[in-house]
Amino acid sequence: MPIKGFAHINVSTKDLETSRRFYSQVLGLEDGPRPPFGRAGAWMYLGDQPIVHISTARSPEPNPAKTDAFDHFALWTQDINHYRQVLKEHSIKNVEFGVPDNDQYQIFFKDPDGMEIELIFRGEEARLASQADGAKTDASFGRNL
């Protein structure tokens, strides 16, 4: 049976309320219903889909089964200037890149626990941002957040 679509990403946090505010105020996701699991957490919704699950750490000790293979997650969106303003208002360090030979533009930043997030913009606003004076291209050369 083929994969039907993307369900969610789960991020672990040290401070649930800080993460909940971040995903709500910065990304515009809505805090919604969550099953009564045995530890604290939140489900952040895009429309009727809980795309980000926030979980409190099971233990203060690092989990040796986890790897550092996960790099970031990305979300399609629009209105570059809106997100630039929101990131500035929240004093969130970020870097921007145009995607070479493609009408996409990226903004990278981190959540309060260090999870890297990429916002992807497409179409005319992405093309214009990529052509602006001083615009960088190709995030593969390093994001240094």
What structural keywords apply?
single chain, 2 domains, 145 residues, 2,3-Dihydroxybiphenyl 1,2-Dioxygenase, domain 1, 3 helices, alpha/beta, 8 strands, four-stranded mixed sheet
Mind explaining what this structure looks like?
- This protein has 2 domains: 9-56, 2,3-Dihydroxybiphenyl 1,2-Dioxygenase, domain 1; 72-137, 2,3-Dihydroxybiphenyl 1,2-Dioxygenase, domain 1 (Roll), CATH 3.10.180.10.
- The protein contains 3 helices and 8 strands.
- It has helices spanning 16-25, 80-89, 124-131, and strands at residues 9-13, 30-32, 41-46, 49-56, 72-77, 94-98, 104-110, 116-122.
- Helices cover 19% and strands 32% of the residues.
- By secondary structure, it is of the alpha/beta class.
